[in-house]
Design brief:
It is elongated and about 50 Å long. α1 crosses α3. By secondary structure, the protein is an all-alpha fold. It has one domain. It contains 3 helices and no strands. About 70% of the residues lie in helices and about 0% in strands.
Amino acid sequence: MSHHTNPTKQTTRKTKHMWLITSFIAALIVTAIWIFAPKKYQLSFLGLMLWGLTTMVLIDHILGYEGGAFVEMETHGLITNGIVLGIVMLIPIFLIWELSLIHNKMKGKITTR
């Protein structure tokens, strides 16, 4: 009797690892920039979204961890590079942040330090 690994399950697990690392790095960078950037850029909101994402992915990873390598650079999905997939998945967060900036600017809520 042979044991085969489910490719879908394997892809999901690999994707989570790079998604966790990519979101963590993005959250660190935005937090570091937030310290020096003017308040009008609302990096606190972007940082909050990124840290929330990182926390959710970490908890999902911990609860669903089944052993094996922690970091995998390849996936078996449409986007085969795990880092590229992680970056692509950050796009909706940056779009929401940009829409928030536009909305607040139109309402006159953008202020400076």
